[in-house]
Amino acid sequence: MAPISPAGGGPRSRGAGASLLLAALLVLSGCAAQTAEQKARAAAPPDLAVRYVCNDGTRFTARFVFAEPRQVVLERHGRAPLMLARQEAESGFRYADEGSALAGHDERAEWTEAGRPPANCVTKNPPPPYFPGTALTRPAR
Hints:
By secondary structure, the chain is an alpha+beta fold. The chain has 2 domains: 1-33; 39-123, Lipocalin (Beta Barrel). The chain is built from 2 helices and 8 strands. An 8-stranded antiparallel beta barrel has the order 1-2-3-4-5-6-7-8. The longest helix has 23 residues, at 10-32. It starts with 9 loop residues before the first helix and ends in an 18-residue tail after the last strand.
């Protein structure tokens, strides 16, 4: 019977230890590496949720996403969330898809949905007077 070598001794245990160390380093380096999208999201201002009430009775929450791709997610009671892509606007903000649009400035917005007349909306929780890095309080670039 071969003698048992102390911990860390013998070629077999050193090879296993090196493999474990290499595996641990690979896992840690994978965790530390961020994609460009993750870095951009981390650098962007946090999402901003704004509640709107419209003159036609429509109510929704608009979650403005400032990381690329910039968009707004409309959350309406009893309906699936609706994502609208950011569009160029001379002043304020505009988000749209093929049949719907949300456009406005500061505390006022116009909500347009396919097959319905536009609705005038106001916020129930206005954004701060200046929300850095957004098009909510200054013209889009």
